[in-house]
Amino acid sequence: xxxxxTATAAMAGLGLLAACTPAGIGGSTSRPAxxxxxxxxxxxxxxxxxxxxxxxxxxxxxxxxxxxxRPAARATAAQLDTTTAAQRAAAAxxxxxxxxxxxxxxxxxxxxxxxEGGFWIKTPLVKARGIGRIFNPANGKxxxxxxxxxxxxxxxxxxxxLPALQLIGVSLTDLPSIEVFRS
Length: 183
What we know:
alpha/beta, 21% strand, 183 residues, 6-stranded mixed β-barrel
């Protein structure tokens, strides 16, 4: 059986398809105000439990927070990492001798949502947000991170941001045992 179509019918069909546009395509390409870096930095992330002074918390927050990657840049780990070189250097610094830290325990770390920027760990070892550090005993590297509560037993695993895993020298597909500290 042979199907034939007239040129007029084909043009009419194409004209109808051209008028169909999914919502959001062809409109504004700007990001919603709530996802801009300024709004992210200004938005309170909840109460933070820490022994640090407000100035130390502000300094740690400047290190651990980064904007989400652009939607078009979601291809490689390097494109997903929106932290700056200065943030990476500051997050990798060893803790100061006068900084009081509490060891919260060990956890199995896996890659968290790679589209969430910054240095963070979501772990059942904390019940409230805070500032802390993760340590990789396999190579001695550590990173300053935001501590974010994760539902589950304390023996459950944790989710770590892509930049934090890279900073402590862990492959994104590994499941290493790391130590978690609260500042």
